[in-house]
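Sharing in case it's useful to others searching the archive later.

Someone asked me privately for the predicted structure of Core-binding (CB) domain-containing protein, so I'm posting the question and my answer publicly. Question first, with the sequence:
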Amino acid sequence: HTQQHHQHGLQGNKVQRPGTTRRSTTNSITARRLRNVTIHTLTNKMHQFLLNSLDPRTNAQYNRCLTEYTAFCKHFNIQGFPVTEHNLMLYTNFLAEHSSHKNIKVHLSAIKYHDIRFGHHTQLPPLPRLCLLIPSIKRTQGSKHVKPKRQPVTIETLTLIYKHLLASEYCAYDRQMLWTACTTAFFGFLRSSEYLSPTMQDYDPTVTLLFSDITIMESKALINIKTSKTDPFRHGCVLRLFSTNHSICPVNSLKTLCRIHHKEPGPSTRSQTDPT
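And my answer, the predicted structure tokens:
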């Protein structure tokens, strides 16, 4: 009797299959999300993500290269995109008149990037003649575009810089600011992009070193480095500088600069003589 009653109950009430509720909930969430987006917004977001695929400085450099390439193609009324090997070779020869082979390779990388970004190619076709042209230009140019070898910065060099600043016509604040920038970069092994603004007209607070990124203690200083060439995803790191007990000391320089600073928000290396 119990078995018959159980079977009757099963016939009267359908047993829900496992996972049906979850699938139904997921579908409703997806439908609700789809109502809040359009192809236009997705396209704009896609292009924004593509713009962020490069470091901002690299992106700016590639955009300058694109502007030059576009002007070249427009002047000679030739096709810019999709790229063709012949037109790239013409542009490469044009660049060779005033640029080194290294700079030419940067231009070609920028053109390749934009060609892929614009959706013309997912991968550029083989360009064998262009590959022959680049080393030929390098061999022909020789040492024409070779820059002088950079000299290392030493304590003696810093001493000369300090003497030059003392004899300069900068105001007291600017002299201290420049000296602090030199000592901080020297003892912290900093690249210029890690603490300076890329342009004189404006600065990006998410990249440039600000006074709020500096913590001064008795015998050390903590500096929050927000971005670096070796940190493309901007995880950041804290740089620790310690007192040297020497006339050239990054901690003492930072203490002096922070003491005479007017507590205005902005870059730590902003000049008072020239607001930029």
